[in-house]
Structures are given as structure tokens and as C-alpha cells.
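Suppose you are handed only these lines of text.
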Amino acid sequence: MKRVFSGVQPSGHLTLGNYLGAVRRWADVDQHRADALFCVVDLHALTVEHDPARLRRLSRQTATLLLACGLDPEVCTLFVQSHVGEHTRLSYVLECVATDGEMRRMVQYKEKAVRQQERGAGVRLSLLTYPVLMAADILAYSTEEVPVGEDQKQHVELARDIAERFNQRYGHTFVVPRATLPAVGARVMNLQEPTSKMGKSDLSGPGVVRILDEPEAVRRKVMRAVTDSGQDVVHDRVERPGAANLLDILAACTGEEPEKLAAGYPGYGPLKEDVAEAVVELLRPVRERHAELSADPAYVDGVLRAGAERARGMARPVVDAAYRAIGLLPQA
Ligand code: TYM
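From them, the structure of the protein bound to tryptophanyl-5'AMP can be written out as follows.
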């Protein structure tokens, strides 16, 4: 069976982008066809300014929400990154294979560093080294496929480069992973700024649909989505990013082609109404299940405990092998 690994940061409330770009596929497809691990990557959420109490709350909420989205602990492994020490243990060794120049070329680093500077906060060193920790997350499990949205593709490619370089220098140790992207929904855009990605920590709240938003909030956000000049509905991501985003979301919800859907709408009003209803119905069962699960935190804790134990057992031999290969003396 293929080994699949992916993760999500508990840095905010999960969005429709997280769901369509990644989590829905983990639940509907990946966990059933592969030996799959999914991780709440809490260490990554420490790379920008954070509030400790909020991080703790969001870590639990994110794990609960992943279960509500359909991850089944009987068929996949769900755990919290900081519960498995192998990630940071491997990350340091990979820092000795990656280069400073590679880190500085990462688009997310450049974008987030500017945002931190604009807020007057220092840029944490961990923001620069973050892609190496992400490579460690992936490589520690001999991962073959990493199901992610488009914004993470560059990081997965870096993990490939690091794995290949390590193997070349120190002998075959790591499986070389590849990113897998959904056909539609790989980049859901902010409804208020359709040229920017819909992100968990976006300041533009009205443009971000959260998985746990009440139906009324979803409808309001979709109905107020920014559309383009011109009344006719066409699917053109460059010239008409607002309409294209709505069509992509509808296509991701219904399984139809965005271009074909465009032909069926005389104007933006009816399109928005259908998008709003499709998203409300898509998220309804997840919200309901989340309400049930959040009433039973002991169950979620149990899942995470068992998941971490299983994950540790898988990562340990791989990280030990990397330590030996790079020349560290094994403990007697
Ligand atoms: P994160 O937490 O930003 O996002 C989690 C997943 O959701 C996808 N995603 C989107 N897809 C489509 N449209 C959007 N607007 C959108 N926003 C987010 C992301 O591509 C991702 O798949 N660095 C990662 C977490 C991570 C990880 C890993 C992933 C850490 N270690 C190892 C895979 C493997 C991140 O910040 O994702």
C-alpha cells in the first residue's frame, strides 16, 4: 500500500480552502486507498506571532474537525506533531543538507516575512527553517504521496530535493515524495480579494468561509463575494478571477466542470445563490458531526494518543537510519 502523509496547521479556524484543497480528499479518498497519516502540525503554528492558550484550543479543535470531516482512526493515523519527537530530531539533520538560499526562495516565507515586518513583529528564525521541518514531517514516514493544495507544492518539491540530496551523499535512506493536487479546488481564493488565496489567518474575514460557519454566515459571505465587471458569467481565472473562483467552488462541490457550469448562468445573482446552497450543504454534515465530537474530548484525546504512538513506531527506524547514515555515532 502507498504511504501518504499530510498535515494542517492549527493557526486559525479551518476554511473552505483547506477542505476543498486537502482535507476532503484525505477523508474521501486517501485514507481508503493508502496507509495514511494526517497530522495537526502545531510546531509550524509557532513560526509567527501566536497566543499559547489559543494554539492549545485550536490544536484540539483542528483534530476534532478532521475527525468530523471523516478521518477514521480505524483506517488512518491522526496525531499531533509535537507528540512525536522524531519530527524535530530529523529536522536538524535535514538542516545540515538544505541551504540558506533554498529557504529564502520559498514564496510563503517571503510573503509571511513581509506581513510580520508590517506588523512590527520580528521574523522568527523558525519561519525561515519551516520548510525543513515540513520535509522532516514527510520524510520521517517514507511518504510517497503528499495530498496538498497548490500553495504547498513548492514545499513538497523542496522535500524531494532534500531527500534526493541526502540519498546521494549518504546512501539511500529516504523515499522521494511527490505532491498530489485536486483537479478542482487546489487554490480557493478569498471571496473579497479573488486574486489572493483564502487563508486561515486572513484579516479579511468576510472573504473567508470557515468550515464551522453557520449557514447564514456562509450565505452572507458568498452573496457579498466580489465579482468582476461584465454581467455575463465566464470562467477565466486571469480576466475574471471573482467569477472563476465561484465557478471553481461550485465545480468542486458538484463534481462538474467549471467551464460547463459557466454556460448555465445568465448572471452573477443566480450563480451566487447556487454556490451558497452547495457550500452550506457540503459543510452541514461536518458541522453536525463536529458538534457531537466536541462534546466528547476524551474520545479525541484517545485517538491522538494512539495515533502518536503508532506514528512514533513508524518514524523511529527511519530517523535512526538517517542519523547513522550521516555519521552520528549510534548509542551503545
Ligand atoms: P495549511 O495549514 O496552510 O493548509 C492545510 C492544507 O490546506 C491547503 N489549503 C488550500 N487549498 C486550496 N485552497 C486554499 N485557499 C487553501 N489553503 C490551504 C494547503 O495546501 C494544505 O494542503 N505547511 C502546511 C502544513 C504542513 C504539511 C506538512 C503538509 C506541515 N507539514 C507535511 C503536508 C505535509 C500548511 O501550512 O498547510
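What can we learn from it? The domain at 205-292 is CATH 1.10.240.10 (Tyrosyl-Transfer RNA Synthetase). Residues 297-326 form the longest helix (30 residues).
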